[in-house]
Design a protein that fits this description.
The complex is a heterodimer of chains A (about 270) and B (about 300). Chain A is mainly α and about 270 residues long. Chain A has a single domain, classed as Orthogonal Bundle (MetI-like fold), CATH 1.10.3720.10. Helices cover about 75% and strands about 0% of the residues of chain A. The mean pLDDT of chain A is about 90. Chain B contains 13 helices and 2 strands, in the order H-H-H-H-H-H-E-E-H-H-H-H-H-H-H. Chain B has a single domain, classed as MetI-like (MetI-like fold, Orthogonal Bundle). The chains are: A mainly alpha (about 270), B mainly alpha (about 300). Chains A and B meet through helix 1, helix 2, helix 3, helix 4 and helix 5 of A and helix 1, helix 3, helix 4, helix 5 and helix 6 of B. Chain B: Belongs to the binding-protein-dependent transport system permease family. Chain B: Pfam families: BPD_transp_1.
């Protein structure tokens, strides 16, 4: 027997209204971004553009292209390194736990929740000292380090589900620490990697505080450049909305194509492991 | 049985990560704590120890008191509304509707955006002379809300240096934040609803319980662990929030939308008051820790027990 009767029309009506409300900001972004500078006036804000004007996109693209590039150079290596280190840590903590490993894991997890303001001042001094201040590799390092807790947690939760008997069988066949990792854990954790990579790519791409304090000018990732667009003297709303869309496109694409994993990633990241 | 040498490999492999966390988290926090007790409030670094002077300054400061008030208002409203919306959406999406995937995706997609993008867009949507207010005016409402430009605080209780109450401007920022995060709450609750066995509902139904009662007495208690996780996650987001407010409103007139994250950023990196900035950062850390440490301890106990 099914738990509920067929959904009613009023339920659908409510859902459609709510979905429309959720999409209002998207409508605003789209119609504004396709307007010409002269058409972006207050009283016509909700109107559709008279004609498709791409000047907003052209201006946003010209201004943001270097920063878009920076963000890719930041997010891709940071994601790959975080996932690799996270999987190794998760493997050790789930299958090779040693005395004190639980306490260490707890101490590590705490790093996931700290407000980054509480490490920012020494971090900047440290990055200046090792000559990575104001550089994309420096930001990669920062994101890999502060991504360690969540990536380790997600992989650990994933590996706990792999039966230990499999590892023991492999060991009898002569496989060691790395052999087991390469031949059993890695092949079995492809979906774990997908989840962690989506999560990490999205957070690194969207991050702002480290980006704005550790880089200037040409080295800035896209989110800082987008924020600067709105901080300028004359606010060109069409350029700004086009810029917002450009900045959001990569994570939206990840989300659209991999949304099922995205949700799973959210759940895995939600410390209820 | 493990060989001695084999036992060392796992420890060696995890050591670099542990060392990095030891330095980047615990080392740097200690350093920030130390700076907060100095008078390093200019560009020139100083390690002259001044005790609690920076903290004393902050707790008497109009701006910082406003920040704490705003954080409280933001946290309560943000957590409450996000969870209510999330539960409500999850309940609807779980009703065996057609096009479930479509609706689910519409409600979740803001989660993929950056707080900066959300802030930039909602700044326009809730701009008092444009955006939603234009629509409201066309509906005949002649005095639409001032959104984030409002400076009213209700109820206005004078406390310390500030008026205590809910700054109306905070509601605008909360709306943007709820828009971004309620899909996440929905996804969590949806997973929770689907893990409740149907027999439980059936048994209650056979006992003659009405649907509303089933929801309150059977389903809600089952969702409690998820609600707990949500409160922890949302509270830790809201206690350290910075980018959304920085992009959307900034501190606001009379600091009605200021939060410790924004104050810390401005006082440290615009004003070069490093010791004061460190003090704010340490207070933020303390607030988050009061929430997170008991949670981490209890979840570890559960795992062992």
């Amino acid at each position: 027997m099914h738990r509920q009767t067929a959904p009613s029309y009023s339920l659908y009506l409510l859902l459609v209204v709510l979905a429309a409300l959720f999409l209002v900001p998207v409508y605003i972004i789209l119609v504004t971004s396709f307007k010409g500078a002269s058409e972006v006036t207050l009283d016509r804000m909700w109107h559709l553009p008279a004609s498709l004007d791409l000047s907003g996109y052209r201006a946003a693209y010209a201004k943001l292209l270097p920063n878009l590039r920076n963000s890719f150079w930041l997010a891709i290596p940071a994601t790959a390194l975080s996932a690799l280190l996270g999987s190794m840590n998760g493997y050790v903590l789930s299958k090779w736990s040693f005395r004190g490993s639980n306490v260490m894991f707890a101490l590590m997890l705490f790093g996931m929740f700290i407000p980054y303001q509480s490490v920012l001042i020494p971090l900047i001094q440290f990055m200046q000292q090792i000559k990575l201040y104001n550089s994309i590799p420096g930001l990669v390092l920062v994101h890999v380090v502060y991504g360690l807790p969540i990536c380790t947690l997600m992989f650990r939760n994933f590996y706990v589900g792999i039966p230990t008997e499999m590892l023991e069988a492999a060991r009898i066949d002569g496989a060691g620490f790395f052999g087991i990792f390469r031949r059993i854990m890695l092949p079995l954790s492809v979906s774990g990697f997908v989840v962690v990579c989506i999560w990490q790519f999205t957070s690194v791409w969207n991050e702002f505080l480290f980006a704005v304090t550790l880089t200037t000018q040409k080295q800035q990732p896209i989110m800082v450049a987008l924020q600067n667009l709105s901080g300028s003297q004359i606010v060109q709303w069409n350029v700004q909305m086009a810029g917002a869309l450009l900045a959001a496109l990569p994570t939206l694409a990840v989300y659209v194509f991999l949304s099922r994993y995205f949700v799973r990633g959210l759940l895995a990241g939600s410390i209820k492991g | 049985m493990m060989h001695r040498s084999e036992k060392a490999i796992p420890v060696l492999m995890i050591l670099p990560s542990l060392a990095a966390i030891a330095i980047f988290v615990y080392g740097f926090i200690s350093w920030t704590g130390y700076v907060s007790f100095t008078d390093w409030n200019t560009l020139v670094r100083s390690s002259h120890f001044v005790g609690f002077a920076n903290y004393r300054f902050l707790f008497q400061d109009f701006r910082f008191q406003s920040d704490l008030r705003n954080t409280l208002a933001f946290t309560v409203l943000f957590i409450g509304l996000t969870m209510l919306c999330g539960l409500f959406l999850a309940k609807m999406v779980d009703s065996k509707i057609k096009g479930e995937a479509f609706f689910r995706n519409v409600f979740i997609f803001p989660m993929a955006l950056s707080f900066i993008v959300t802030g930039v867009v909602w700044q326009w949507v809730l701009n008092p002379t444009t955006g939603v207010n234009l629509a409201l005016k066309s509906l005949g409402i002649s005095h639409p809300p001032k959104w984030y430009t409002s400076i009213s605080i209700v109820p206005k209780l004078h406390l310390g240096a500030i008026d205590f109450g809910l700054p109306v401007a905070v509601i605008a920022v909360v709306l943007a934040a709820v828009w971004q995060m309620s899909g996440f709450a929905m996804a969590m609750y949806l997973a929770g609803l689907r893990s409740i066995p149907d027999d439980l509902r059936e048994a209650a139904r056979i006992d003659g319980a009405a649907e509303k009662q089933i929801f309150r007495k059977v389903i809600l208690p089952q969702l409690k662990p998820i609600s707990m996780s949500l409160i922890i996650i949302l509270a830790h987001i809201s206690l350290k929030i910075f980018d959304l407010i920085y992009a959307m409103t900034g501190p606001g007139a009379m600091f009605v939308t200021d939060v410790p994250g924004v104050y810390m950023f401005e006082t440290t990196f615009r004003g070069n008051h490093y010791a004061q900035g460190s003090g704010i950062a340490m207070i933020m850390l303390l607030l988050v820790s009061l929430l997170i440490v008991p949670y981490l301890i209890s979840s570890f106990r559960k795992e062992r027990g």
